[in-house]
Automatic annotation (TrEMBL):
Protein name in the entry: Alpha-amylase
Gene Ontology terms: biological process: carbohydrate metabolic process
Entry's transmembrane regions: none
Every Glycosyl hydrolase family 13 catalytic domain range: 33-418
Example of a GO MF term: alpha-amylase activity
Subunit description: Monomer.
Catalytic activity: Endohydrolysis of (1->4)-alpha-D-glucosidic linkages in polysaccharides containing three or more (1->4)-alpha-linked D-glucose units
Length: 539
């Protein structure tokens, strides 16, 4: 009996441990590694981008904006001059799939087309709350709501489905103390109607929505405002989710989940409360990397040698890494203009993203933004406030207000670098004890970054086979030539690396798929010539 009990216990422990990691896998196609957030793009534009750019350039997946019905905000009370701000997407009215990004049919078609070219879709999921105090009205799908009650007919939710005074201990009903777990999880976040996720009815409605898009073929979810929900409630909701679509992903695959938990230290809620059942957004990654590249508090690139767990971040197996996101690039949501780098500081930003994509920590997410004159301004739109399609230029960049950082050569080429490097670890680290660093990813890729006030000019071990390589920061490999710089690696793996500190992009990066073959072709021609002479013999 004791033996049978032990075996059963071991089986239960095995199944429990397997379940805990079930939502950590992003389900990329083999050889793909990176997510891009196409912030506020339309579904038809995303489908086109998957087919025309993301698939061919090796991106793994797309984080999309919330696809469910939201409140329409014509004039935020604090700024009557701005209409349809971006954050209206984070004020749900129902779980109907109709927004400014498109209809349910367009959503389904986007998922199908992206999956067909090996690009996964991850849904930004807003399940902590409904709208804030924006007045009664109708949402983007026509559903009636009244946050003063509160009631949301499109679900439906009524006043009994929200956390009230019996759970929220503050007089205002809003969060007043972020060191009080009960307030953070049971009170309103910025006045947003806080759902009672302890109710089975609410859990079922959320799971129905998530299962609907799972059936359509999405690969997973970003869970917005996860720190404002009790871990036990999230675990219960995730437990109601179906496996991923078998036709696309095979049998028994669980949806990928990465949860927004802002944990910079010093608050009651910790990110490690959530890692058991999904990855967590590591906000310290972008903040600290920004501080290093900005040289805040005498930070230096050389300190990045153990970036990740060595900096007290969560395990890379549990983390989603990013330089900036749609919140903190605007100075809120753990933002800080003195730390966070964005496309507005393009030189430093490219250094940060290039390092992130070269460095083996977590699942990386690249930002793709639109420009804004004020932080609450919504995406580029026409006179009726319909989102404009993304304008794409002949040089692969975007225009008409769309920034498209993911289409910057320095960034999309580093997505390929990360794909090529695979699971190879860091090797051949070098630094000048200051702000010049270089390292290889095993024997597959090599990178050097110069953030100093003088040139980098060193003979460095690249770890790569002998050959002539195209630098993917300054250009591309086009056929059998380099459109930018070329770097010669000797038989001993060493190369003379020169990086000008005054360059717009003070970096170089090479990998084994951008080596030229003309040296080897010359050798083959020479050998064939000798063979021909030998066959001819004396005349």
């Amino acid at each position: 009996m004791a033996v049978r009990f032990s075996a059963s216990l071991l089986l239960l422990l095995f199944l429990w441990n397997r379940a805990q990691g079930a939502h950590h896998e992003p389900h990329f196609q083999p050889g793909r590694t990176t997510i891009v957030h196409l912030f506020e793009w339309k579904w038809n534009d995303i489908a086109d981008e998957c087919e025309q750019f993301l698939g061919p350039f090796g991106f793994g997946g797309v984080q999309i904006s919330p696809p469910n019905e939201n409140g329409i905000i014509w004039e935020p009370f604090w700024n009557k001059n701005i209409k349809r701000p971006w954050f209206e997407r984070y004020q749900p009215v129902s779980y109907k799939l109709f927004t400014r990004s498109g209809s349910e049919a367009e959503f389904r078609e986007m998922v199908r087309r992206c999956n067909n070219v090996g690009v996964r879709i991850y849904v930004d999921t807003v399940i902590n709350h409904m709208t804030g105090h924006i007045g009664a009205g109708h949402g983007t799908a026509g559903s009636y709501f009244d946050p003063a009650v509160p009631k949301y007919d499109g679900v439906p939710y009524g006043p009994d489905n929200f956390n009230r005074g019996n759970k929220c201990p503050t007089g205002s009903g809003d969060i007043e103390d972020y060191n009080n777990k009960e307030q953070v999880r049971n009170c309103r976040l910025s006045g947003l109607a806080d759902l009672d996720l302890g109710q089975e009815y609410v859990r079922n409605k959320i799971a129905e929505y998530m299962n609907k898009v799972i059936e359509m073929g999405v690969a997973g979810f970003r869970v917005d405002a996860a720190k404002h929900m009790w871990p036990a409630d999230l675990r219960a909701i995730y437990g109601k989710l179906n496996n991923l679509n078998e036709v696309t992903f095979g049998s028994g695959k669980r949806p990928f989940i990465y949860q927004e938990v802002i944990d910079l230290g010093g608050e009651a809620i910790k990110s490690d409360e959530y890692v058991e059942f999904g990855r967590v957004t590591e906000f310290r990654y972008g903040m600290n990397l920004g501080n290093v590249i900005r040289k805040n508090d005498n930070q230096k690139l050389k300190y990045l040698r153990n970036f990740g767990e060595g900096w007290a971040f969560m395990s890379g197996n549990n983390a989603l890494a990013f330089v900036d996101n749609h919140d903190n690039q605007r100075g809120h949501g753990a933002g800080g203009y003195g730390s966070i780098l964005t496309h507005r500081q393009s030189r430093m930003y490219k250094m940060a993203v290039v390092f992130m994509l070269a460095w083996p920590y977590g699942v990386p997410r690249v930002m793709s933004s639109f420009s804004w004159p004020e932080h609450i301004v919504g995406p580029p739109h026409d006179e009726n406030y319909n989102i404009k399609s993304v304008k794409k230029n002949s040089d692969l960049t975007c225009g008409d207000g769309w920034v498209c950082e993911h289409r910057w050569r320095q960034i999309f080429n580093m997505v390929k670098f990360r794909n090529v490097a695979g699971f190879d670890g860091v090797a051949n680290w070098w630094d000048n004890d200051n702000n010049q660093i270089a390292f290889s990813r095993g024997n597959k890729g090599f990178i050097a970054i110069n953030n100093d006030d003088h040139q980098l000019n060193q003979s460095l071990q690249t770890g790569l086979p002998q050959g002539t390589y195209c630098d993917i920061i300054s250009g591309n490999k086009d056929g059998n030539r380099c459109t930018g710089r070329s770097i010669q690696v000797g038989g001993d793996g060493r190369a003379q690396i020169h990086v000008d500190n005054s360059s717009e992009d003070p970096m170089i990066a090479i990998h084994i798929e951008v080596v030229l073959f003309f040296v080897y072709l010359q050798e083959i021609i020479f050998i064939n010539a000798l063979f021909s002479i030998e066959r001819m013999g004396p005349q």
